[in-house]
Amino acid sequence: MKKNIFIFLSLFIAISLTSCEKDDDIRLSQVPDGVMATFQSLYPQAEYVEWEKKKEFYVADFFSGGTDLQVWINKSGAWSMTESDVRLANLPEAVQNAFKSSQYADWHIEDLDKYERTDRTFYLIEIEKKGQRDRKLFYAEDGKLLKDEHDRENDDVTPTTTF
How many domains does one find in the chain? Predict the structure, then answer.
């Protein structure tokens, strides 16, 4: 009897977890026409598109050309930011050299992202090292370190993130 209850509870929990959506996920029908028009004009080849609402922005998470991207568009339909995954070999040489000559050169790179915004383009290198708190390093295209901070939960980069 206890075994049957355990199986039932396990199945119930598994089904409950898989059926939950993130709070900020939205349906395609909830995306304003102007936002959709901007997105389609910028990324006509987008595949596997999922939409979220983050504060005043509509965020499309999708694939294009084999790359995972997120585009942020404000409620008026104006493009605000694009985030894309980057490989180490595709980082600008200035950024690679700056990281290699930094105090964190022996840390493990966990993630690399490129951010294109209306005001600038920059790169985020997320790093980790056993026994240390994870860090985020923000670099300008010319290799200048813009910001060095501890990685915190729910501290996503947005179009309004400042340096």
Answer: 2
